[in-house]
Amino acid sequence: MKKNTVVLAYSGGLDTSAIIPWIKENYNLDIFSLVIDIGQSKNDLKGIKQKAIKSGSIGCKVLDLKEVFVKDYIYPLLRTGALYEGKYFLGTAIARPIIAKAQIDFANKINAFAVSHGATGKGNDQIRFEINYSSLSPKLKVIAPWREWKFKSREDLLNYLHKKNISTNATLKKIYSRDENIWHISTEGGLLEDLWNEPTEECWSWTNSIENAPNKPEYVHIKIKNGCIVSINNKNRTPFQCLKKLNKIGSIHGIGRVDLLENRIIGLKSRGCYETPGGTIMNEAIRSIEQLVLDRESMKWRSKIALEMSHIVYEGRWFSPLRYAIQSSADNLSKIITGEVVLKLHKGNVIAVKKRSINSLYSKSYSTFGKDSVYKQSDATGFINLFSLSSKIRAIKKK
């Protein structure tokens, strides 16, 4: 292929639909559209090749990376326990490294001149994409139209596409920005930009509201091996199949809705409605087994690396040495995270009601409030004397 080709991370949405004709007009380059299937809606992928060609792309390829995404990106993230600012399962952030890697690999394969993305100059994704590009192939040119073109809003893009006779699902009335993959779906913009507006049901795509969720709870039996979900209701499944199944179950019960005002990398605050039903269930299952098998210091360390990992992934540093180091630590802890848990799903809640593990540190004979013959309570006196020694000395010095 010619050296004047740009590989675009194409979604078929408003932004990338406008990018194809804009780059042709302003750079006189050929555009090859690359679509990464990581579990987005089938409606988003239906006819996407034809749409890309009609928009001006010289070609379009769809790569099915759903299993790879869950096995090599989501499951490792789950093992760390990372949640950005305590709530966000990083659904958009964790998708960017696999898209960027596929884009770079394909660009190098066809000897392309540049890569491009549809991220705005206000958002996080521009940083995530371009850090990953730099980590994997720094010599490729990056074209980021939102930082160059004169369009100021998505309304401008709609008018531009209308003039070009290029169709899009976005409208002036429903102009939400959505990102979807098998891990989550997010909704931003529209009425959510006014923080005094409660999200309407239009802001949610996957999950039932609490009001519409079943009145009767559902119990799910999950088996975990080395920190990975391997079985649901006694049926072994691949990582992708596990997540797909739990998404379906969790959505029915209104699991995984989050209305979050978060701190973006560039300093702005933004509001998003996130839905992660299967991920919320998976996280609770793994954390429940951790409670059984990790000692106090290990739990403290896992909490620390979870916080650090949440920022690493949010900032797009998936291929950094620090991410690999933290991942190695989490994976080592996960070697003993094996067991099974029964979760009760009801009206948006996920509650672990049963759990057991061959590596459990819990001992009923030691922990009981009833009569026991294994624990000598008077031993605590010496421990307390030593544990409080520095506090005692400090108090004496003050006097």
Total number of distinct structural domains: 2
**What would CATH call the class of the largest domain?**
Alpha Beta
Percent of residues in helices comes to 40-55%
> What's the total number of strands?
14
Rg for CA atoms:
25 Å
How much of the sequence is in beta strands? 15-25%
Which spans have pLDDT < 50 for at least 5 consecutive residues?
Answer: none
From the spread of the alpha carbons, the general shape counts as elongated
Count every helix, treating DSSP H or I runs of 4 or more residues as helices: 14
Distance between the termini: 81 Å
Give me the side-by-side strand order of the main sheet: 3-2-1-4-5
Q: Tell me the CATH architecture of the largest domain.
A: 3-Layer(aba) Sandwich
CATH homologous superfamily annotation of the largest domain: HUPs
Q: What name does CATH use for the topology of the largest domain?
A: Rossmann fold
Describe this structure in words.
The protein has 399 residues and is of the alpha/beta class. It folds into two domains: 5-81 and 91-172, HUPs (Rossmann fold), CATH 3.40.50.620; 184-294 and 336-356, Argininosuccinate synthetase, chain A, domain 2 (Alpha-Beta Complex). It has helices at 14-27, 42-45, 48-55, 66-80, 95-109, 125-136, 154-164, 239-252, 277-293, 296-314, 321-334, 364-367, 379-387, 389-398, and strands spanning 5-9, 30-37, 59-64, 114-116, 141-143, 177-180, 185-188, 218-225, 228-232, 235-236, 257-263, 269-275, 339-346, 349-356. It has a five-stranded parallel β-sheet with strand order 3-2-1-4-5, sandwiched between helices. Strands 10-9-8-13-14 form a five-stranded antiparallel β-sheet. Strands 6-7-12-11 form a four-stranded antiparallel β-sheet, with no helix packed on it. Strand 6 (177-180) and strand 7 form a beta hairpin. Helix 4 packs across helix 11 (321-334) and helix 10 runs antiparallel to helix 11. The N and C termini lie far apart (81 Å). The model has no long low-confidence stretch (mean pLDDT 94).
